[in-house]
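User: When convenient, might I ask for sequence and structure tokens for a protein?

AI:
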Amino acid sequence: MRALIAVLLTLPLLVGPSEAGAEALQPLLARHLAWRGGDAFTRLESIHAKGKSVTGGLQGPMESWSHRDGWARRDVDYGVMRQSMTITPDGGWKLNASGQVEDASSTDARDVRHQVALDFGAALRGSAGATLALQPDAQRDGRAWKVVRVTFGDEDLYDLFLNEADGALHGLRIREDNVTRFVRLGDWRQVQGVRIPFLEEVLTDNPDSDSRTVVEALELNVPIPSAVFERPQDVRKASFAKGHHSTGFIPFEFFDENRVYIPARVNGHATQVLLDSGAEMTVVDTAYARELGLKTQGQLAAVGSGGHAQAQLAGGVDITLGNLRLTGLTVAVIDLSEVARLIGHPLPVVLGKESFNQLVVDVDFPNRRVAFHEASRFKAPPRAVRLPLVESAGGQRAIHISIEGRPPIPVLFDVGNGGALSLFPAYWQQAGLLTERRSSRTLSGAVGGLRERDVATLKDIQLAGITLKDVPAVFDDAGKSISASDRLLGNLGLAVLGRFRMITDYATDTLMLVPDARALRQPFRKDRSGLIALPAEGRLVVKLVAPGSPAAGSGWKAGDEIIAIDGKPIGPDYAGTELARWRYRAAGQAVVLTLKDGSKRRLTLRDYY
């Protein structure tokens, strides 16, 4: 069990807000140690548990192993999806929703090692790099608890909620990757003199993410076979037609020059799929899933750039791209209709990282074509610049960029993001990037909805040895979205990546970029109107008037409706056309906008952020 907390063997070196606080902590820990079993914890070496786990309407058998030397594995089989992650002192591996074997990220390993240090008492003895401090009392489940905070020299926090009288452990408040959950422990039983919780409830701010685990069998201090932690052979989900080792280049639709739509067949049905390296798993739109006859299960929380959305799971999905077939995928089923409306293009399927994991993916943006290759047969182009592309938080891949000469930071590698760059508050606030910088407001997001956020222009960013100048960036707030992360510090999108021929080789954690000189000379798109408007049946509805913009000084307001631009009506095919790019025209140009009532307004474009 992830939150099994072993009793502590000796009193630790205490670090509190004051000497008095440290003195108060010592007797509290002594009572806790006695309650947990005392000397029996000295001999605790391993924990092996079996039981059942329930989350998001899914349930299945659970089995876990952990050893005090830093070894841990946890498996849950929900039928439509099997979860498995193993961490060893040297690294680790995990299964994604479709059963592919992936490397565990360094932060995955760090989280599990923190937990093992708690489970076996090392952290509470003051070792494993841990420090302890007594916090103010906290209310939980109708009563007050003493709170002992454990930290490991990073951003994460582990708060033990203890009963003052006897030191009994009620649960833990855990903050990892800037997201807080509470692990409530119950049904405590003594096993070989050690108190162990046979009930674990993980409570979050979204009920769809909560889970409940009941232990039905438990062994302590039993040797764990080394085979338990061995990396399994990968399950091949990608295969080429007989005699082929590559799809060859497939033309794609580069919609609005910021989305890659590839022709495909999904369970035999012809469609287009949106290529998205930022999607942890492939997503099928709810309506399209019904059309395909997919059987959905569960109700889970999906976290996107705009916040949370509800998702279900469906198995047995096959996707064909030319002579390549991806088989037996487990996909998320999410209502993508609003995202499709915002993009202005149908969005039946988002093709996620399953298509990247076992193949070399070659996206030739200059020539609007993509190819998928067996890694062993692929030869990189001679001018390719190689960059690390590593597993990171939340099952995502990260690359490093530098902002205006600052030290490099990890950002999400996101081919599905049509923008240039968004920065997360854990980075931009600490760096003071909006201090004395002209900025305004915009709307951004996708799955989870749109959010109002700051927007400004960076003098430059550095990627692959190339300096890109005057880069528009969105400065995200924390919210309940991926931007809350303090491990990934931003999201790099196609407005930057599309200036290269881009090749990924996930098996070797490598991104190869071939600069496109023509694309690199092009300035980045910037809104120069201040009218943040969304399409709606032959018109644009103004949702936000950006502060300090031309529109802000011209009497525009949210709710205004535009039906024509320079006399040209907004038709059903407006999105992705040259007409739709009117707000990106050069500063100084004038645009005549016709409103729903027939009146016309002249707007002179200019830079305002």
Notes: Residues 389-521 form a domain with the Cathepsin D, subunit A; domain 1 fold (CATH 2.40.70.10). Helices lie at 19-36, 106-119, 286-292, 337-343, 354-357, 425-431, 494-497, 517-521.
